[in-house]
């Protein structure tokens, strides 16, 4: 759930000019007791959930939570399934890596992974050993650790690492993936947020690659890199619906390329924000809701560069909303967007281009 600032609850309004009656005092004290109890319960729940999420990640081999469980998924090995309905913007999991690969290495990849695993405590080695190696099913002996690494590693800032619970999450393309992971440099952990509502029993899916490509292109990449034929809901569409989805995704990718040309001044701010609105509209149609924070943040940058304070504020507010949903309200991205929303002129690109009014977001908050 997106964390919102809790409104402070006030006691009952004083309607008497002479001060509160005994009944009002009683009601106020009951309201206070109730408020205190609710606050304690809320605090307890927050502490418990943080503790639980931490426990889940720190003990590494506990792969369940009140929100999800790891189960066998026909045709996919293991996967993560929602144990109850999950609202958009819920933190599903935070996890520290078993290990990260250092930026520069001298050994062969095979020896490097063997060395990194052997430095782990025994129970963590066992967690690593239990991971699948579907991407390289024929690997044996010394090749096996690298095969597991290739199947399960994920980006962690500038590095790549193994997060054994997140590694159980399968892939979905375009509108099929409903969760996103991001690395937190400050806490050195990866967080996973549900950026769409997820229903009880539904599989939780992330995306292993940029899926704004045609079905054939996506499937070829996934086959080559991960050795599976993607059967997600988008890859399983009828030929007619698949064609329409491909057209939207390819158009979104082409529009993003066009948007990038604003940087070298090939297009102006009005056109750039119009492109962003068009990507947003296609995203609604496709139900591709990922990356919206970054898209709106780009628009805020364009608006700020062109001196358009009102548009910059509107786009930054939208960026804040979507960063909070996909990356967490306490992510650096959400905080940066909030700062721009509060003071658009503080954007480092403020006024760096000619003055013009750019498009406001078509999307509401
Ligand atoms: C990071 S692992 C995911 C967890 C894995 N299913 C397991 O059993 O541990 C990646 C592997 O999961 C399988 N996988 C992931 N997404 C899939 C999908 N959409 N369809 C079929 N297999 C998938 C593939 O075998 C892939 O190589």
Can you put this structure into words, describing what you see?
- The protein has about 375 residues and is an alpha+beta fold.
- It has 10 helices and 10 strands.
- The relative contact order is 0.09.
What is the strand and helix layout of this fold?
Blueprint: H1 22-58, E1 68-73, E2 77-82, E3 90-95, E4 99-101, H2 109-118, H3 122-129, H4 143-152, E5 154-156, E6 159-162, E7 170-171, E8 179-184, E9 189-194, E10 203-206, H5 215-226, H6 239-260, H7 269-286, H8 292-305, H9 309-327, H10 332-342
Parallel strand pairs: 7-10
Antiparallel strand pairs: 1-2, 2-10, 3-9, 4-6, 5-6, 8-9
Helix pairs in contact: 2-4, 6-7, 7-8, 8-9, 8-10, 9-10
S-adenosylmethionine binds at residues 75-79, 132, 134-135, 151-152, 167-168, 170-171, 226-228, 230-232.
């Amino acid at each position: 759930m997106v964390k919102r600032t809790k409104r402070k609850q006030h006691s009952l309004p004083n309607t008497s000019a002479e001060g509160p009656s005994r009944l009002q005092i009683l009601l106020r004290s009951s309201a206070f007791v109730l408020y205190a109890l609710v606050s304690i319960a809320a605090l307890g729940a927050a502490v418990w959930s943080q503790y639980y999420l931490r426990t889940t990640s720190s003990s590494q081999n506990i792969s369940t939570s009140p929100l999800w469980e790891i189960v066998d998924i026909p045709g996919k090995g293991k996967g993560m399934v929602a144990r109850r309905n999950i609202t958009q913007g819920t933190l599903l999991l935070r996890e520290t890596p078993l290990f990260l690969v250092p930026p520069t290495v001298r050994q062969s990849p095979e020896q490097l992974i063997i060395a990194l695993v052997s430095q782990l405590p025994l129970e963590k080695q066992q967690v690593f050993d239990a991971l699948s190696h579907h991407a390289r099913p024929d690997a044996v002996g010394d090749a096996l650790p690298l095969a597991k690494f290739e199947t399960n590693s994920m980006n962690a800032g500038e590095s790549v690492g193994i997060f054994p619970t997140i590694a159980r999450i399968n892939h979905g393309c375009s509108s099929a993936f409903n969760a996103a992971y991001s690395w937190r440099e400050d806490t050195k952990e990866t967080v996973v947020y549900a950026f769409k509502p997820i229903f009880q029993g539904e599989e939780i899916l992330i995306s292993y690659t940029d899926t704004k490509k045609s079905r054939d292109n996506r499937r070829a990449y996934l086959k080559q890199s991960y050795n599976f034929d993607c059967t997600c809901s988008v890859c399983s569409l009828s030929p007619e619906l698949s064609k329409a989805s491909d057209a939207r995704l390819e158009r979104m990718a082409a529009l993003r390329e066009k948007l990038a040309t604003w940087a070298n001044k090939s297009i102006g701010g009005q056109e750039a924000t119009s492109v962003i609105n068009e990507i947003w509209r296609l995203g609604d149609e496709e139900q591709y809701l990922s990356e919206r924070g970054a898209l709106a943040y780009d628009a805020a940058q364009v608006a700020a560069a062109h001196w358009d304070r009102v548009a910059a504020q509107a786009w930054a507010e939208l960026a804040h909303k979507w960063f909070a949903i996909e990356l967490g309200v306490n992510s650096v991205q959400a905080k940066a967007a909030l700062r721009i929303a509060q003071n658009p002129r503080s954007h480092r690109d403020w006024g760096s281009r000619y003055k013009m009014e750019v498009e406001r977001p078509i999307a509401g908050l």
